[in-house]
Amino acid sequence: MNSGKLVLVINFLTLILIILTGIFEINLFEKDTKIFVENLTKTKKAVESTNWQDAYENIKELNKNWESKKQMWAVFINHNEIDNITMYLRQSMEFIKHQDKTQAMASLAILEHYLIHISEIEKLKIENII
């Protein structure tokens, strides 16, 4: 095999690897975000109804899920985004623990925004490519 064909094969295999990694990344974010948002929705409903015990259990579960997934997310996205999610998650936990409904709802809304925003910017769309 001459060097031109070898370079072509290596380039083709690299392209396939990049495409497969991209598909894995998109599926990972969509699946994880769906789980996070479902848990966040349960937490928000519990806070709205001032069911602080359920709210705290839900936010702890969300935190546990986040802690198990954030290292994988960090491979693909900006660390500032990871830090923002972690910060607002911890802030939300504290507001819920101290039963501050207004601050908890505001913090949960920002947390939801970050989670959905990351999932959206990682999707394969023309505006994300350009």
UniProtKB/TrEMBL annotation:
<protein>
    <recommendedName>
        <fullName>DUF4363 domain-containing protein</fullName>
    </recommendedName>
</protein>
<dbReference type="Pfam" id="PF14276">
    <property type="entry name" value="DUF4363"/>
</dbReference>
<keyword id="KW-0812">Transmembrane</keyword>
<feature type="transmembrane region" description="Helical">
    <location>
        <begin position="6"/>
        <end position="24"/>
    </location>
</feature>
<keyword id="KW-1133">Transmembrane helix</keyword>
<keyword id="KW-0472">Membrane</keyword>
<dbReference type="InterPro" id="IPR025373">
    <property type="entry name" value="DUF4363"/>
</dbReference>
